Amino acid sequence: MPIKYARRLTDRRRSKQSNRQLGLCLAFIAGAANAGGFLAVQQYTSHMTGIVSSMADNLALGKTDLVLGGLGGLLSFIGGAITSTLLINFSRRRRLHGQFALPLLLEAFLLLCFGVLGARLMEIPGFFVPVTVMLLCFIMGLQNAIITKLSNAEIRTTHITGMVTDIGIELGKLLYVNRNERPGQAPVRANRERLRINALLVGCFFAGGVSGAFGFQHFGFLSTVPLAALLLTLALVPVLDDLRLGWQLWRRRR
After folding, report:
1. In 6, 136, 175, 250, which residue has its Cα 20 to 30 A from 212's Cα atom?
2. Which residues cross the membrane (predicted)?
3. The domain containing residue 114 runs over which residues?
4. pLDDT in tens, 150-193
5. What is the 3-state secondary structure of the chain?
């Protein structure tokens, strides 16, 4: 990946185009981690809707252990979002180039841990759920907060319900026949760009899911290592820029 392109994707200077291109990469990674993670832990970890709904169902059925298991996943997702926000605000106050690269770097490290140590982590109990489930939920919360903050909540990557809803809305506008409008009444027009980017995000999530499921089926936990390598490639350039500038500033002060 060219250095200038990697810097443009994750640097503090943002554009709508770079937000969307990074969103497509992260949607692919989220789909792969979610689908591959399901084969590993028998639970989807990217969206909290299902987890909270299952908590309500299990509470009504008196299955307290499953309620607490869902709570462990939910708190892990929230913890990931909190961590991402802390890292981004810390970097933003210091005007670092790696504002969004630091949480991506952390995500790469955690995915690498999942890939290398996943089989062992399955045996370690976490907060009412295995550590692997907590780790995946944490990663998903971490990533969703990154793309939410850098795109001002325009893009989501770890769950596609909102994106599919937006696709339906824009298709409804596209199919609407404008006739007999009142004077001064604006015609209904679809936002084709919004329709296109949401369709691409859903497509990347699906492609990532196929890739993640295929990879885990054939390579097990190690299938997440290429995902970690991709995140590392995206995050490394701005972080190295900050280290270089910090080194230059330190030498000047000597």
Report:
1. 6
2. 21-46, 66-88, 100-121, 127-147, 199-219, 225-245
3. 2-177+184-253
4. 777 677 777 788 889 989 999 999 998 888 777 777 888 888 98
5. CCHHHHHHHHCCCCCHHHHHHHHHHHHHHHHHHHHHHHHHHCCCCCCHHHHHHHHHHHHHCCCHHHHHHHHHHHHHHHHHHHHHHHHHHHHHHCCCCCCCHHHHHHHHHHHHHHHHHHHHHCCCECCCCEHHHHHHHHHHHHHHHHHHHHCCCCCCCCCCHHHHHHHHHHHHHHHCCCCCCCCCCCCCCCCHHHHHHHHHHHHHHHHHHHHHHHHHHHHHHHHHHHHHHHHHHHHHHHHHHHHHHHHHHHHHHC
